[in-house]
């Protein structure tokens, strides 16, 4: 339960075959930047798959998801601009702000009113970029994007949404929380990663902005790094195209999430959300000591979860972060609950 392989694509036969074929045909790497010799046909095909998946005009593939946030944010928002972000934003978002030298304005987590107050205090003529996440990775909670995007647009801000933990799974077509809440057409830039639902490594940005392509020439984390190996973009493109037809997998993953969430709550565990909102279920521990004991007890039961602690977690929490997969069977989820129950009773977290 520690992997972000939400849609179970890492061992998909077609994905693996595409990677092997590209490795045989094009070798182990490009040894060059995208703006030099590092753009192969596979990179174009991967970007085409993303454009088709999101029904958007433009797509850029980066070597990692971290670089996608770092590059896009730092290029769009520079000195004299403002980036307004959720205080629980991912480190790559904060680092993108710092690299671009924009002024960071943070607001309380998922608080629409706090976002609006921050925006209204800023100079009307200033460049403003609101950065949000569809799903926040520590607690697995979903952002109220519809309300936040409305407030952002009313105050003259562009909007970037990081859908790393929702792409492939949430929304009718798996396009993320923005799609699920009916506001994807109001988002200026969507950032995502290949290291979760897509099942490989890399990052991307998609957009309908008419001047988007200029970013390829001025985005430093895109220009000054080697491009992804041909085998990686081949696996990513194949996976993305299969996710377009992944509605059955998405439905099964939702059932797994609901079953695990209800089961853990019924056992007496404190969870990060009242209802399941994503494939991430956070089990809140009383303190770090108990959290470490519970983590070890689960290992002894043959179950791996991620132990998360400050400063990575919000509000000083210690939690066990469970990440479900569409390849988990219903029977396996029931078995997981049994292991949590035995470990929790042994450690004294539940009665």
Overall structural class, as computed from helix and strand content, comes to alpha/beta
**In CATH's first tier, which class of the largest domain applies?**
Alpha Beta
The CATH homologous superfamily of the largest domain: Type I PLP-dependent aspartate aminotransferase-like (Major domain)
Largest sheet: 7 strands, mixed
Element order, helices and strands? HHEHEHEHEHEHEEHHHHEEHEEH
Q: How much of the polypeptide forms β-strand, as a percent range? A: 15-25%
The low-confidence runs, each spanning 5 or more residues with pLDDT under 50, are none
Read across the widest sheet, the strand sequence of neighbours is 1-7-6-5-4-2-3
Task: Give the beta-strand count.
Answer: 11
The Cα radius of gyration reads 20 Å
| Helical residues, percent | 40-55%
Tell me the distance between the termini: 23 Å
Number of domains: 2
Number of helices: 13
